[in-house]
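Comment thread on ticket #2218

A.B. wrote:
> Attaching the input chain for the structure job we discussed in standup.
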Amino acid sequence: MRGAGSDIPTIAEAARLIAAKKLSPLELTRSLLDRIARFDPGINAFLTVCDRRAEAEARAAERALKGRRRGRLLGIPLAYKDIFATRGVRTTAHSRLFADNVPKENAEAVERLGAAGCVMLGKLATHEFAIGGPAFDLPWPPARNPWDRERFTGGSSSGAGAAVAAGLALGALGSDTGGSIRIPAAYCGIAGLKPTPGLVSRRGVIPLSPSLDTVGPMAWTAEDCALLLDVLAGHDPADPASVPGPKISYARSIAAPVKGLKVGLVRHFHERDVPAGAEMLQMIAAVVRQLQKLGCKVGEATLPSVHDYNAVGRIIIAAEAYALHEAMLQSRVGEYSRGFRVRVLPGALIRAADYLAAQRRRSDLIAVTGRAFQSFDVLLSAATPGPAPLLSEQRADEGFATPFLTTPANVAAIPAAVVCGGFSAAGLPLGVQIMGPAWGDALVLRLAHHLERALGTRARRPALLLPAEGVRPPAERVERVQLG
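C.D. wrote:
> Ran it. Output below, let me know if you need it in another format.
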């Protein structure tokens, strides 16, 4: 039996139907919980499903509607990567070390969405402590790609990408340190935004590399990401990294025309630095043609090599991740996954001089990247070299041997979005990356929104299989906590 996705509304569509009282938040929530129960055993997107809590929050949204409360996200069901603290619901970071961690407070991003009336469906799979790749030596299996369950979702917001693509949640919260929102968005065919650092609070989110960590929305469309960002963005005085950003509506900003925008194609990223496959190059060429039809002026932009950004990012991540985990690694190293150990333990060998050199080089890269926006409004590149690879344990040097095309935006401290630009011959999504200047999040989402509509990729969802029709479900089913 296959699962249709055409009946899954976007956040924007659901919001309009709820406001018009043509869709009940409780009915929507129950339909998604039923969909999770039917299809997630073959996808493994969820670590924890909050059935009773979600229904209680949906009922509260319906009462608020009767009281004439309005809000674009009232009654919208979401799910959160399992590094976001959730009051009374375990937050494991997909690690046995945190298997019994139950926070007393919500992360600020979760709190803001809850205050807006969103419904929490549950917590989503990640890579252990948001680093590494799919691990098969942890208490929970890695998430699988809904377009082809034998394939990788990307990481580390793996469950978020899978859940949104499969229509198990209308949106999700992810985090991005070197591409962890945008790679799953590319492989799973959804939209994801890595915001300007400081725009969205990181308070209550388990850190990986504080110099590079960001928090952002993942959803089926760029418009949905903009709706979520309207609630998420804003200064948090309790987060030292939070910075007051523009006081604008991102959802309203996306409607502005894109005619006349100057788009810099960073061709060398995906043609020379990390050569992409033929299908990806064909997709990028089609995207460029569509941008020109929209009235954009496309030229070629040149930045430092992806390898330069990646070298800086890898040193900073390894050093900071090791520093955060040093005490537990010294006493409980065997409880971490192999993938985490091989990526983080080398951080113990990074000298202070090397770390400081990487931070100085990062300052140079921020400056040179910023100068590119004197000639262009936004920059464009492939998000990955190709479609999602087969799901398997990654090489220990993954991210070093083959740099990520997403890391430059993290190192350069700029916003970047990934949306689906097309599909491979096998029907797998291909992601295109749009980067903007610092605090240019609205511009990035605007171009992403217009591009999605022009390309028409949002009309195509994966056809889901029940677990018995393909991949064998894991021996351990999703824990379904009962929280009222």
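A.B. wrote:
> Thanks. Noting for the ticket: The first strand starts at residue 2 and ends at 3.
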